[in-house]
Amino acid sequence: MELFLHQVLAGIATGGIYACMALAIVMIYQAIDHLNFAQGEMAMFSTFIAWQLIQWEVPYWAAFFITLAVSFAGGYLIERIIMKPIHNAPILSHVALFIALFAVINSLAGFIWEYQIKSFPSPFGTHSVLGEGLISAHDAGMTGVTVTLLVFLFLFFRYTRIGLAMRAAAANPESARLVGIRVEWMLALGWGMAASIGAVAGMLIAPVVFLEPNMMASILLYGFAGAVVGGLTSPGGAVIGGVLVGIIENLAGTFIPYVGSELKLSIALALIVFVLTVKPSGLFGRSVVHRV
Amino acid sequence: MHMHKYLIPAMVLGMAIGTAGPSAAQKKYDPGATDTEIKVGNINPYSGPASAYGTIGKTIDAFFKKVNAEGGVNGRKINFISYDDGYSPPKAVEQARKLVESDEVLLIFQSLGTPSNTAIQKYMNAKQVPQLFVATGATKWGDPKNFPWTMGWQPSYQSESHIYAQYILKNHPNGKIGILYQNDDYGKDYVKGLKDGLGDKAKSMIVAEVPYEVADPTVDSQIINLKASGADIFFNVTTPKFAAQAIKKAAEIGWKPVHILNQVSSSLVSVLKPAGLENSKGILSTGYLKDVTDPQWKNDVGVKNFFAFMDKYFPEGDKTNALSAYGYSVGQTMVQVLKQCGDNLTRENVMKQAANLKDLQQDLFLPGIKANTSATDFYPLDQNQMMKFTGERWEYFGPVLTGATGGS
Amino acid sequence: MAMKTRSAFTDLIAFFGALAVALAPYRRWLILGLVLLIVLPMPFVVKNFFVFQLTLAMVYAIAILGLNLLTGFNGQFSLGHSAFYAIGAYTAAILMDQYDVAYYWTLPIAGIICFVAGFLFGLPALRLEGIYLALATFALAVAMPQILKLSPFEHWTGGVQGIVILKPNAPFGLPLNPDQWLYYFTFAVMLALFLCAYNLVSSRTGRAIKAIRDNSIAAKAMGVNLSLYKSLTFGVSALYTGVAGALGGIVVQFVAPDSFTFALSVALFVGLVVGGVGSIAGALFGAWFVLFVPNIAEHVSKGLAGAVYGIMLILLIYLMPSGLAGLVRLVVMRFARASR
Would you call B118 and C254 a contact, using CB atoms and an 8 Å cutoff? Predict the structure, then answer.
């Protein structure tokens, strides 16, 4: 029983990582109606920028917010400069561009900062909360930040004019233009915000998994799983989905005999496929109805 | 008077005999070798999941530049051609074929990764091109009977595990062992070595064997499981990133077993420091190269040579990166083999000289460690010394040991 | 003087334009003839290594064609074709290694197994659209290497060590080395499969498949059985990629879980976009891009090879958003217009 509890808590901890990433994914999906495969790499690059600032003796929180700003600008610029020329191209070209971005950012990061792992500081410390070894302060802090971010996003989309404009631009660009919304600005804004959220995710994840250019690849995958399970249209669902994926993955790895550990990843993926088949909009998402 | 009649013919004959010595005054070349250069091929992962190891390729490239700047090998410059395989076996096959058939190298040296080397092994042996000093410790590379053109270099993983097994049997005969291993060739090789080394006691002593995948973001869950299994000896078979995570998590959950860490991840700078030096206190491992950050080698000639090399020829590299020390050492061994070849630069002679290393010592080998090969022994290095981490540096203890030369 | 050269120039263009228009109905034969002229003598003109690369390019072309059938012609987004490629490759390897089956039999067997696999995957995929389908197939691609490493299957798959297979020799004692023989064999298979694909796409079934891509609701309203066609297309697409995988395994002589990661799916996808969605001939160009551009990128800069590759891809997409096939179509249209 104790093992079960430990694994659940550990699952919540890793799930927190996935939830963070899932939030960034859902964010960009809400903004541009596409899934950006380069999201993880952008988050990793932002984390490296933060690391570099810290190496230059910039205090943690200053580096944190500078990185957020730089990431926002970066995401905005990427949309304006790189994505703009193919706005009207078919979706496949967009995906190919995401793949190209992935390759460029990954390669650049490896070139600048090399592939040796680096430790990244946590603002919450590493001591344990709730008794020895059950859950660390960082894990708790990470969950807290994710939830805060979630609330902020919820309020932003629901109750601000820009939030509403963004949702309109993503849902129906033509109609949005007709009511005076500057769709291009909204897209770029969406990218900027997604980049910033990704940076937060990266900076929270790095203390646990250690910073290196390939750190985000598998996390992106679990993030997708979490986003899908929770529902691509629901930020709250994405967070819960991420945590669920973490818990299920850990329990499966521990309690399924013989092949449990080997199958952890496959289980996360089977989960994606299962949820997609049974309830494509995810646990908390809204079904999207297409008008003919 | 009549002596003069024979003097000149005698002199000519004498000169002919003198120069036609057994070490071939005639030069013999296979593709890739000429009077002025030797083409050495290499396949390294400069991109993809194993890109951290690309540093080895870069270090070797710099090292050969140094050798060339100092006159080359027997007057010939080394032309080092290195291609990226992204740690993908089909790409490795393509690059190997490119090196052999298009670039026409004399040999392929230090190709990295067990999957990549497995993919090209049959091809290299069929084409009779040396696959020399492969950059993996998998035990299967020392098999001259079936693969006479393939040779490893570093102490094999199984031989390393044997040493750990002996240590455990001697010091903790009633211990319970929990193993964390990477679920691939390399991890399984280590585990096999430990089990073989423990012999009959393996079954009773090993209480948990927990794998992880390279694709896993963390091994935190596995560490929790290992603690719960009641193990008090932890055999940690992980690559640097996961090793750091494992050490950190174990400390976090208050698990303090006898911690044996595989040599692959014993780097102070790359693993122990990120994981936390306090957390790493007491960890055991083995080594065969000097840790250049260790102050005890401050005045060591070999280490000084290495630093001088890094400063001049690889200034953008990190002197403290164990991979560079490794690249430097294996580069030196390669140069030694080429030197031994003299003017007979055929592929067959390259293998012959590689199988003819006697008590070879390089700059960064620990004192007492020597490379030895023979026609039946294709494991150049099979010695290791155990070391313990004091919280500040690695401290060697005990004798230089030889793990049983794997074989299986 | 200027007037004269200008009219000579436009005359020249008009001439070629008229030629293009006149030959247009026969262009398929012309292209075929040209291709044969270039392709057939290759193995005797270039080094063995290049023959090997060309063979590999053809293998990828078949795989990309498979993906094109599903994504380009039927509109079903797949990022999971590396899984089918892997199934085909392992089928061939296991049959040749453990059951001593001749290499040419492994192709149809791999094809059938992959067809079934594709069809079965296509069934639940019916409910998924666009990005969701992409995710599901993405999951499949990432799971495949893990599944291949599973210990219960190690006996057949060789686990992480993979399986090494031998290259077949030329039959009937033909004076060809194994590389050259495989080149021709692969070319024959590719030609056959391409022709079949072309026939499929131009047939009634093909039109139904394309209709589903263009407007599935309208297609359904017109009586096209969506479930049947979509699943069948998935199956056929998997068949093509599976046969490619089997061929690929034979050409490379080695299969291992790490050979079939998600990166392969990405490569196939990039090849699809670069060659031109909905273009059969474009698959070959896409295959060339995917095989040779990374080498070129590495040549340009070892450390930044990935970045160079990415930039080249970005430029290509800007210049040819509909792939090479789209560009060719544009050029041909220009010539047709100029000749009037």
Answer: yes
